[in-house]
Amino acid sequence: MEALDSYHMMLSLAESFSTPFVIKAIIKLGIPNILAKSDKPIHVDEICTILQAATGQAHNSEIVRRLMQSLCRKNIFEEQPAGVFGHNSLSRWLIDGTPKSFASLFLLTTSEAGQAAWHHLHELALEGTSSSTSAFAKAHGKSIFEFAANDPVFADLWFGFLNSFGHIIINGVLEGYDGFQSVAQVLVDVGGGTGLSVSKIVQAFPHIKGVNFDLPHTIASGTQNFPGVEHIAGDMFESVPKGDAIYMQKVLHNWNDEKAKAVLKNCYNALPVGGKIIIVDHIFDPHQKTVIDQDLGMLVFTGGKQRSASEWRELLASQGFSNVNFKPLPAVKFQAVIEAFK
């Protein structure tokens, strides 16, 4: 019996790769959004009729039913009664075009470019010292950031993912962290992407002037005009704009320690004496499956890592920062604000 149980467990693991691709198919068909527009669950035949009216192309109701049922068995969507599908609390995260949608993440990780990276994961273990690259770079010959700069379709997925998670995280930060009030004037968001996070901070604390700092191609194509926010293009590995405080949301986990130290050194030089750095990132816990999975994701896509509290202290101290404080964010599980001073 034990051998049979382990057999079925391993079989399930081998087939578990299919779920993200089924979710991708459902998103590509537009079914989460169709169900979101209805005030009640819809039969699969009606779903296909709506799809045909929208696209002018007939849809196979049997295939759609099988896809939906496979997700229902994983508690994604609900079937009631047979062939009638509706949303549940989990599937609502797949509605595309909403601020908190996970649709862009599934489309990003299941893209051909994203999937190719995982085939090179073992190569990182063949390097004699700590890897300075990512499986994505092994697969494509360039970092994910460079790849996005030259592939508009991939860039749309990338920015969509950053915006979706950015909404969730910055709302959790504003709810759980009270340290922005003490920022004298200028807050520089290093690696701020579209500028969404710093704009929300400025909106909540109007005395702050926000600076969104990111790579030239991001500033050129990915930013929006936000009141009170100035966009500045540059390279954080070369220098960082001066400010009274520096904010970094989910940036340093993209890089190994050597590169993270280079960024922190530039941040230190950009701050006045008494200025502070505000980092929003994971606190690594080896007993948490979600954090372990996300750590592997960093290894594959960026070459970065999730860090424990002691690793964060050591990293910040190596570049002169002191008085390191950790403020967990109850609204964003496994994340914290890491505050340190020059």
Offer a quick outline of the entry:
With 342 residues, this protein is α/β, with parallel strands linked by helices. The protein has helices at 2-15, 18-29, 31-36, 44-55, 61-72, 103-109, 112-118, 121-124, 135-140, 144-150, 152-176, 196-204, 216-221, 257-270, 289-301, 309-318, and strands at 42-43, 78-79, 84-86, 186-190, 209-214, 229-233, 245-249, 276-282, 322-328, 335-341. It has 2 domains: 2-94, Arc Repressor Mutant, subunit A; 112-341, Rossmann fold.
Mind explaining what this structure looks like?
It is a single chain. The protein is of the alpha/beta class. The chain has 2 domains: 2-94, Arc Repressor Mutant, subunit A (Orthogonal Bundle); 112-341, Vaccinia Virus protein VP39 (Rossmann fold). 48% of the residues lie in helices and 14% in strands. The chain has 16 helices and 10 strands. A 7-stranded mixed beta sheet has the order 6-5-4-7-8-10-9, with helices on both faces. The protein has a 3-stranded antiparallel beta sheet with strand order 1-3-2. The longest helix is centred in the middle third of the chain and has 25 residues, at 152-176. The N and C termini lie far apart (61 Å). InterPro entries: COMT-like, COMT_C, COMT_dimerisation, SAM-dependent_MTases_sf, WH-like_DNA-bd_sf, WH_DNA-bd_sf. One of its GO terms (biological process) is methylation. One of its GO terms (molecular function) is protein dimerization activity. Residues 118-322 form the O-methyltransferase C-terminal domain. Keywords: Methyltransferase, S-adenosyl-L-methionine, Transferase.
